[in-house]
Amino acid sequence: MDCFCCFNNQEDFWTDPASSIIKAYETTDQTILSHSSDLGQGGSTAVTAILINNQKLWVANVGDSRAVLSRRGVAEQMTIDHEPNTERGIIENKGGFVSNMPGDVARVNGQLAVSRAFGDKNLKSHLRSDPDIRYVDIDLDAELLILASDGLWKVMANQEAVDIARRIKDPQKAAKQLVVESLNRESKDDISCIVVHFKG
Fold first, then answer.
1. Can you give the pTM of this predicted structure?
2. 54 near 70, Cβ under 8 Å?
3. Residue 136, SS3?
4. CA nearest to 117, candidates 43, 171, 55
5. Candidates 3.40.250.10, 3.60.40.10, 3.50.50.60, 3.40.50.300; CATH matching 10-197
6. pLDDT tens across 91-101, in order?
7. Could you state, in order of their start, the residue ranges of all structural domains in the chain?
8. Tell me: the pLDDT tens digits for 165-193?
C-alpha cells in the first residue's frame, strides 16, 4: 500500500513544520485505520520529503522506507529504519513482544518486521506511527535525494543506490533503473522509488 500524508492546515506548516508533519502522519494513520474494513488489516511504511525553495529540506519516515541524500557523490542516510529490536522496550511496555525465529528477522508479535507503521490494526496497540523527522539545508554540494521502500534497500547499499542514480541525468529514469536493479538482485519485497535532483 502506498501512502500519502494529509496536511490539513498549510499555515501550521509554516509556523511549526515538525509539529505539522507529526499531525499529518497521525491523520494518515487514523484515516487508514478507519477504512480497515475496505483496505484490510495490513499496513504501510512511509517516507516523505518537503523541499522549500530548493533550499530547505524536511524528511520524515515511519518504518523502513528510507531517504538517502547525495552530497558530492557521498551517500548520507537521512532517516532511521524502525526495527523491532531497536524499539523492543517500547513494544514490550505496550504489551507486545519481539521474536526472532531461527533464520528470520525480528518481528513484532512474530508478525511485523518494523516497529512503526500506518494501519496494521491488529497490532496497533503495540506499534507506533509517529515519524522521525530531520531538517537539512540544501547547499551546492547536494545533488539528489532518493526516497524508496525497503524492497530496494534490502538488496542495495545506500552508496550503491547513489552511484546508480548519479549516472542518469533524468530523475524518473534514475528511479526506474534503481527499481530494475533491485528486481535483478531478486528483491522479494515491494519496491517504490522516487529520485529528486536538486538545481545547482
1. 0.88
2. no
3. strand
4. 43
5. 3.60.40.10
6. 999 999 998 87
7. 10-197
8. 999 999 999 999 999 999 999 998 889 99
